[in-house]
Amino acid sequence: MLELTRGTGGPPRAVARRRRRLRLFALVAGVLAVLLAVAAGVGYWLWQRDPVGDAALSGPIPERTVPPLKNGVFVGTEPDQAQAFAEWFGADLDVVVDFSSRTSWDEIADPAYMIEAWSGTGYQPSYSIALLPEDDASATVANGATGAYNEYYRQLAQNLVEAGQGNAILRLGWEFNLETSRWATPDTAAFIGYWRQIADTMRSVPGQEFKFDWNPNNGKNKYDAVEYYPGDEYVDYIGVDAYDVAYTWRTYPYPDGCDVDCRSDRQERAWENAIYGGKRGLEFWADFARHRGKPLTLPEWGLWEREDRHGGGLNTYYLQQMHAFIANPDNGVAYQAYFEFNGHDGPHKLMTTYQEAGETFRSLFAK
Question: Looking at the record's lineage, which domain of life comes first (predicted)?
Fold first, then answer.
């Protein structure tokens, strides 16, 4: 049995010690709580800081001329499918997006099948042009920056002009900020140098009126695209590929049992925090284009049911928000092209896969 020794009018010593320990624990817990709160605040502040983005959006905003909005589509190298989409859409199309073969340098320099397919169709082509071939591992962005590959792009420019496509929009090295891109590189100077080499080379070909579309992927990616901007004199459009994809908290994937309200909440959060909002969402890119005095473009966008479940699938809210963004003249969108194609990485097609959303799309865009 514990022997309690009493003092003069005070509590037992064991009880006093216990109270002192409790006060000490409370003090330590309070200090830890304060430290954790400070750490969380500092962490949030560091996460929110964006010196690169802030610098890009500083300074005066130049005047810019934004042409009337052009509607477009990607349907593969299939002019008949483009016509079918236009008929379903209920309005004329102006632009077709396509991707040239890129297995070898010869395919990059002379994508004859693609050029021939769109010749005489009346569409303005927006061609996705590779910076490096897939079958030549020795080819690098750094070598390209020295001018080593200029001749291939001179040949490409000549082929386009001869085919009557000297007005083509060229998405050089599209989505270069994705880690999985063949031409992804941490060497920003090399990328910028290579872009300038190609732009200067292709612009030197008589008869060309090319528009160069600098086109990163939307949202947070491996590389910060802002640091890869080649300069205003080398760029005509600022393009963004902006699919219904999000990895931020409480967006996608939908949890099991997610009902209509749950899906709606996550779709809205995906738009606000990742697709439109966030450090590198559409809101940022619209501001970036405005500060550069360039029109904005949306060469690829669409619904997406992804294998990793980070796409929104059937999502009419996304279509409504994209339409509102595109229709807002403050955003300066020169052309938009829906990605009407079902690939190995998931479906996008409004005409077949997402027919309910397709009706929403037509009601919004065919006005």
Answer: Bacteria
